[in-house]
Amino acid sequence: MPARLRALVTAVCVAVMAVALPAATAHATGRTVQGGRLDWGVKSSFQSYVTGPVAKGSYSLTGGAATVGSGAFRFHSATGSYDGDTGAFTAAFSGGVHFVGHRTDAGTYQLDLTLSRPTVRVAGSSGTLYVDVTSKAKGTGTVTTSRQVPFAALSLGGIDMKGGGNAVVLNNLPATLTSQGAKSFAGYYTAGTALDPVSLSADVRAAAKASPTPAATQSKSPSPKRTSGDGIEDGAVDWGVRRTFREYVTGDIAQGKWTLSAGAQDGGALFRFPAGEGTFESGDLQAAFKGAVRFTGAHGLDLKLSAVKVTVENDKGTLYADVTTADFTGKKVPLVTFAAKNLKARNGLVAVTEAPAKLTERGAKAFAGMYQAGTDMDPVSLAVALTDDAELPALPDLGSTPTASGTPAEKSSEPEPDTSAEPVASTSSDGGTGPALPIGLAAGSLLLAAAAFAVIRTRRTHATASASQED
Q1: pLDDT tens for residues 332-371?
Q2: For 387, which DSSP code?
Q3: Which residues contact 4 (CB under 8 A, 6 or more apart)?
Q4: Cα separation values, 65 from 68, 396, 410, Å
Q5: Please, are residues 97 and 116 in contact by the beta-carbon 8 Å criterion?
Q6: What span, in angstroms and rounded, lies between the C-alpha atoms of 152 and 192?
Q7: What is the DSSP string of 158-179?
Q8: End-to-end CA, the chain
Q9: How far apart are CA 91 and CA 454, in angstroms?
């Protein structure tokens, strides 16, 4: 082989090796993202517009999403991957927020927008926020559902995503509406509009180990099903009491908190009362659960709920609890009722998911008259296993609490909401809304000045809720 040809072949081989080796290394060091939260207010001035005197609307949370801080929504249970060698990062979160406004005489809404399942993907020095979007177009009212729309461009401010450790934390990433996001946003804003910054924390697990040996696999075979008749093997009830009550407890007025005991778990937007025991027969349920939650705060706030029980009879569910306050003590107080029609076991599991709940008269007394009987409370989710191998739904996984270090942009330096960028009510006969204007350059510069940062941490603690006062 001629020398020049040998040199060329050698160069090509080296080039191929140079490309292949980093890829193999990256694959070897790829790790799993499992558990975490993403905090995002979408756009604070949009929230104000929706709930203000023009749209006269509201928002509701779905899929275990919660409120946190002053106007942010918290999405949970991150899943994805992280490569410490390249910095490539993907994390998908659960939960959604549903905005409605401009109610018509027919009871429908002109403004109807749902954003759910946010996913952040980072490659190099930039990232993208994807969301599932269901929106109603202005004017025509056409409803469109789109999956994983590249909704916002995220600026990483030059941070280096490469590294190792047990968690990835990104704070205050400036977010800008994309052209596809603007279209999915029903045209309320133009591409390039600044959205609320995005913060996230995601736990990272070590690379998966080699597959277990046959012997190890055999030793971990599932336990056989038990036909225990109508007896309950395990169970849990998930209930957040009421979102605005939690916000009141931790807000500026009560300045309080909640504490969990006796095995109760905090899922962010809900509390889980586990270890269910009881019976299920022909659609009727009698079950008792462990755990307690206690709300405390200023102005004499002290409310404890424990010994939670649930009954279902004739397609109607009732949630009971022992109630202790400074002025009231009651055993097995019926707090809320909910619909539970045609309750049946499927694969050994009996479940009710996010059933709307109403406060009872005795429940109203337990809350010292803060709410009237019939008030909407947080929905009730219930699951009981009738066999050993039936798995209960997973509790929202908020992951590790981010390191309490300084943020790039203190709250005092954040720009005020630009109400000129909001949809403006139209006086035209079609009842639509006027065009939206993008935020000014000065506000965008302030957001860009809020440089994002990433830290890798190992400490794991429980998430602490923080929210606004009761409305």
Answers
A1: 999 999 999 989 999 999 999 999 999 999 999 999 889 9
A2: S
A3: none
A4: 10, 9, 25
A5: yes
A6: 9
A7: T------SSEEEEEEEEEEE-H
A8: 83
A9: 14
Residue that the structure tokens 């999915």 belong to:
184
Over range 149-169, report the average pLDDT.
Answer: 90
Distances (CA, A) of 257 to 248, 294, 299: 10, 8, 13
Q: pTM of this prediction?
A: 0.71
For the cut 60, the answer to whether the pLDDT of residue 22 exceeds it is: no
pLDDT in the model for residue 230: 62
pLDDT tens for residues 189-231? 999 999 999 999 999 987 655 444 443 333 333 434 444 446 8
Q: How, if at all, do strands 89-94 and 72-83 pair?
A: antiparallel
Q: Rounded CA gap, 430 and 417, in Å?
A: 28
* Cα separations in angstroms, 103 against 99, 111, 187: 12, 8, 19
Secondary structure letter of residue 416 according to DSSP: P
Distance CA 232, CA 286 (A): 9
pLDDT of residue 209: 55
* Of 34, 33, 55, 60, residue with least CA distance to 45: 55
To 5 degrees, how large is the angle CA 219–CA 79–CA 24? 80
User: What is the C-alpha to C-alpha distance for residues 40 and 151, in angstroms, rounded to an integer?
Assistant: 13
